[in-house]
Amino acid sequence: MKKLDEMTIDEVAIIIRAGAEVFNEYLKENDSPTLDLDGIDLSGADLTKIVLAGCNLRGANFANANLRHANLGASDLCEANFHNANLQGARLSSANLKDANMEGASLIGADLTFCHVYGVRASASQLAQTNLFGAKGFSITPAAQEIALLVVETLMDSWARMDEVEGISEEEIMKFDDAALAAHCTKEAIKREKKKN
User: Fold this and answer.
1) Hey, how many other C-beta atoms are within 10 angstroms of the C-beta on 194?
2) 6-17: per-residue pLDDT in tens?
3) Portions of the chain given CATH number 2.160.20.80
4) Is 2 left (phi over 0), alpha (psi -120 to 50) or beta?
């Protein structure tokens, strides 16, 4: 059997499109290689529970794909297209999502912890119930401000209910965990942006 890292990108795409059971078996037989799948077209594919962790997926097309409970952790997903994709429960922790298109994607229950999300296009409503702890790079432009506010609320909620936070000084906030620190920094960035406008 031909090894995955010896196949063309089109050959790998055919195997991936066959579904998680087939592709994940290939991974086991190939000692889970790190694949270079730059620009692969997997649009519209059913990739439920697929394992593409640690792969180069720069510019990959996942538009309209079903990625429920897929594992894309630590992958390079710069400029990937997830337009209208289903990423519910997907694992994207530590992935590089710089300039990825998430417009219309469902991210309920997705794990975006410690992701790089510079330039990601998404709406706040899409990020509901998404784990954003440690995510880096939400730009605080007017268009992205609603996302940043949601990040603040999500992170603050991880250590205290909002009514318990009222009246706590900045010094006290800094004594809390990294989530509190990230929330504080995001709030400060929003304040600075508002002063500019």
Assistant:
1) 11
2) 899 999 999 999
3) 1-137
4) beta
Task: Give, rounded to a whole angstrom, the gap between the first and last alpha carbons of the chain.
Answer: 61
Phi-psi bin for 19: left (phi > 0), alpha (psi -120 to 50), beta?
A: left
Query: What does pTM read for this prediction?
Result: 0.69
Q: What is the CATH number of domain 1-137?
A: 2.160.20.80
Of 160, 151, 104, the closest CA to residue 130 belongs to 151
Residue count (the chain): 197
The DSSP output letter for 46 is B
pLDDT digits (tens, 9 = 90+) for 96-121: 998 899 888 888 888 888 888 777 77
In contact, 52 and 70? CB cutoff 8 Å = yes
183 class by beta-carbon count within 10 Å (0-12 exposed, 13-18 middle, 19+ buried): buried
Alpha-carbon distances of 163 from 69, 93, 133, 170, 185, rounded to whole Å = 34, 30, 21, 16, 20
How many Å apart are CA 34 and CA 30, to the nearest integer?
10
Query: Given this model, what pLDDT does residue 60 score?
Result: 98
Burial 121-133 (b: 16+ CB within 10 A, else e): bbbeebbeebbbb
